[in-house]
Amino acid sequence: xxxxxxxxxxxxxxxxxxxxxxxxxxxxxxxxxxxxxxxxxxxxxxxxxxxxxxxxxxxxxxxxxxxxxxxxxxxxxxxxxxxxxxxxxxxxxxxxxxxxxxxxxxxxxxxxxxxxxxxxxxxxxxxxxxxxxxxxxxxxxxxxxxxxxxxxxxxxxxxxxxxxxxxxxxxxxxxxxxxxxxxxxxxxxxxxxxxxxxxxxxxxxxxxxxxxxxxxxxxxxxxxxxxxxxxxxxxxxxxxxxxxxxxxxxxxxxxxxxxxxxxxxxxxxxxxxxxxxxxxxxxxxxxxxxxxxxxxxx
Length: 298
Description:
- This protein is mainly α.
- The protein has one domain (about 1-295).
- It has 14 helices and no strands.
- Helix 2 (about 35-55) packs across helix 3 (about 70-90), helix 2 (about 35-55) crosses helix 11 (about 205-230) and helix 4 (about 95-100) crosses helix 7.
- The longest helix is centred in the last third of the chain and has 32 residues, at about 265-295.
- The mean pLDDT is about 85.
């Protein structure tokens, strides 16, 4: 259980960083007029610069040594896709709406983990994921308002992210966390550069520069923690705690943009938290049962 609890805490911290990343991107798009292509490119380039500053330039070539080039390129491409679609979505939708679409990820991952990773998902865990998804529906209340075309971008971002999680789980058994973290920036740094440079807008003032430089740290830090989380526990255990991001997103959306959550948001958040606590409870029971089966019999 200590490893699984550690994985859960890592995931909760990671999604909080992602909430800060989405908030920063939405602020930059809405308040500064900086194009999405520029924000996407600086998000990946900023992560590379942060890693070089922390690890030292001499360590960077070592991070290119991978045991699975195809998987790393696939993951890096999925990272770029989910980032582009997500930043497009946050430009037009409320933050709680975009993150709610993201919360379809545990259902997709849980379904894909069985054929692709050979993992088993019990009915207790499946029920908890389903209840958490109901909490998301309580927050969004689909059908009450008109459906914006940006929801398609949010949905595509969620699909890319679901596949990214599956690939990340594979890579935890092949490469180190730092190698996977670095390769995640390769495709984005190269492919997004021409679009960003052709549409470049110089930020005015200090604050936009601070946010642009923070994008790489927030995104890189979040993905590093997720990679570490999947080293300690299976996908089906860790992924449901993506729901924790809703709490962070509602808080930041209120503080930065003044979006006041209504009572439905609080009810939905409580349902999501309850499902997460139930998952922790079930994992403790499962761990105790597994220890009992390992005890020698006289």
